[in-house]
């Protein structure tokens, strides 16, 4: 869900519900989202 992973100011959102895969529902998607947020925070 595009809107669920969009940062809101300094607040970044992670978790399976922010995955690129609709209805992801696994720890893989949760971890994928964590990597995405780390890249966002590092400016990559
Ligand atoms: C019974 C079951 C079995 C599963 N088996 C597997 C499996 O074998 N393999 C697999 O890959 N996945 C499995 N999953 C899915 C996996 O558990 C999830 O995909 C993963 O935990 C999602 O991680 P997350 O960090 O996005 O969310 P969560 O692990 O749900 O973490 C969210 C956290 O936020 C906290 N929270 C919620 N609201 C608030 C609030 N307002 N303020 C503060 N804290 C809040 C919650 O208490 C929770 O600790 C299973 C799920 C279930 C229910």
Automatic annotation (TrEMBL):
Q: Which GO terms describe its molecular function?
A: oxidoreductase activity
Specify the Amine oxidase domain's residue ranges.
Answer: 4-37
Question: What is the recorded name of this protein?
Answer: FAD-dependent oxidoreductase
Q: Which residues form a coiled coil?
A: none
Compositionally skewed regions (Basic and acidic residues) per UniProt: 1-20
**UniProt xrefs under Pfam families:** Amino_oxidase (PF01593)
- Which organism was this protein described from? Streptomyces montanus
Give the residue ranges for region: Disordered. 1-27
């Amino acid at each position: 869900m595009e809107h669920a992973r969009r940062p809101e100011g300094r607040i970044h959102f992670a978790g399976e519900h922010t995955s690129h895969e609709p209805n992801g529902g696994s720890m893989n998607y949760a971890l994928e989202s964590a990597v995405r947020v780390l890249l966002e925070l590092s400016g990559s």
